[in-house]
Each structure stands twice: as structure tokens, then as C-alpha cells.
Amino acid sequence: MDVDMGKIAIVTGASSGMGREFVKQLDRYTRTLDEVWVIARRKERLVSLQKQITRFPLRILPLDICKEEDLVMLSKLLENEKQEVRLLVNAAGVGKAGSFGSLTRQEAENMVLLNDKALVSVTKMILPYMTKPGNIIQMASASAFFPQKEFAVYAASKSFVLSFSRALNAELKKEGITVTAICPGPVDTEFLAISNGGQAQKPLKKMVTVKPEPVVRKALQDAKAGRPVSVFGFPMQALYVLSKFIPDCLVLK
Q1: What's the longest Cα–Cα distance across the chain?
Q2: How far, in Å, CA of 92 to CA of 103, rounded?
Q3: Which residues of 93-117 are buried (b: 16+ CB within 10 A; e: fewer)?
Q4: Distance CA 184, CA 216 (A)
């Protein structure tokens, strides 16, 4: 299978987890990219990723997209190079489980800042350089389907991503650009361990945890097909359907 995307791709959160997996699978499935720009704070992780990619060069951009000065640097780079962006993957994200009262203000604010504000900023910045056929992949979550106790801020931040992505997809479709929100359940990545604070997973969560490879594979297929939402696996697909019918008040109980 080839994902028909040309010119350049841009991936945020590329140093680990889902972002890193997206870059790896672009290397495996794509023939038409001239370059991939990989964005993350940890430069050494991006350098190690570069050694694993053989089909196209990586442009390493050690940027913190929560910082205005780093967003300005990215904006200037786009303006100066005027590249055609065929794929944007917003995979950067942060989560912290626990009751709202147990979180620090910084922990709560960081989830909104990275998961929502930075995602909107990067999307807005890169959109003028996107050409058709173009794809935007936004990392949401199955947590977006319902409000969640002890994951209140994270679930709300991903609900924003899902709503924003679906609306943006409707706006851009006539321009030949599709937006796909990725809504996986628990994925076995570094993110999962960090969000749990090092604590053991709850049994039900452990049962539905999946590897990142098939989630990313389906996400790329769904993006190519122009689907607005990508949900991997029967348990999460069933949950997505149920979310249309089950009142939030029952879920919260």
C-alpha cells in the first residue's frame, strides 16, 4: 500500500509514541515525499529516529510548540522555504490522570496548552502551505467520546480536538484537503505510562490496550480515504457508536 502524498510532511510530537510511529510508517508506505519535518523538544530523540529512516530525509526541528518564540521560528521557516505541505500530523500531546483537585495548575493548563492551543496554532500556520491532495491528521482520543472522571481535563481537551477536526474537515473538503481525527483507546506507548503517573493500569484499560503500529496504519488508510474520524479496534468502535446514544450522566455514574 502506498499513501499518495507528495512534497513534504510535517509531524509534531515525533520524538516518541504515536508521532514517532507515524514517521516510521511514512518511511514504509510512502514513495512521494521529498522530505519530512519532524518537530519535538528532544533533539537527541529526533536524531536517533533519523538513523531508522531510509526512504526520505528528515528535517530535524527541536522546537517546543507551546512557546511563542518557537512557533515564530517555524512560521519563518515555512515563509522562507515555501514548501508544499501534503501531510500534517499533529501528534504532540500530554495527559495526566487523577482527579482535578489532585492536579497542579500547571499540569491542568499544560494539557489544554499542548493538546488544543498548540494544535490550533500549528494547523493555522501550516494550512496556507498545504496543497491538494492534502491530509491533516489530528491526534484526538476515544476519551473525546465522553466526559471522564479522573481524566476530566484530558478528555475535554480531546473532545475539543474531535469537534474542531470534524468542522475543519467540512470547511476544507472543497479545497481538496481532508482532516481526520484519530481516536484510539489506550495505546502501549511512553505516553500511557506518563499519563498514569507510573501506576499500574486498571484491568479493563489493560484489556483494551493496543500497540501503536496498527493504529497508525489504519489512521493513514483512513486519511487517504478522506474519513473524518479514525477509530481502531472493535471495542473503541463500539464505544464510538454507543456515545451517540448513551447520555453522559450515565457514563459519569
Answers
A1: 53
A2: 20
A3: bbbbbbeeeebeeeebebbbbbbbe
A4: 10
Question: Shortest CA distance to 179 belongs to which of 169, 192, 189?
Answer: 169
Q: Tens digits of per-residue pLDDT, 35-55?
A: 999 999 999 999 999 999 988
C-alpha cell, 84: 508544499
- Using a cut of 0.85, tell me whether the model's pTM lies above it: yes
Asked if pLDDT for residue 1 goes beyond 60, the answer is: no
Residue from 64, 243, 46 nearest 163 by CA: 243
| Separation between Cα atoms, residue 40 and residue 12, nearest integer Å | 6
Contact 232, 218 (CB under 8 A): yes
Inter-residue contact 17 to 91 (CB < 8 Å)? yes
Cell of 89: 500530523
Give the 3-state secondary structure of residue 109: helix
With H, G, I as helix, E, B as strand and everything else as coil, classify residue 175. helix
**Interval 78-99: pLDDT, tens:** 999 888 999 999 999 999 999 9
Taken in order 127, 133, 139, 141, the sign of the CA dihedral is positive
Backbone angles phi, psi at 30, to 5 degrees: -115, 140
Q: Which residues pair with 249 in a beta bridge?
A: none
Beta-carbon contacts of 35 under 8 Å, excluding residues fewer than 6 positions away, are: 7, 8, 9, 56, 57, 58, 59, 83
- List Cα–Cα distances, 204 to 186, 230, 235, in angstroms: 10, 22, 11
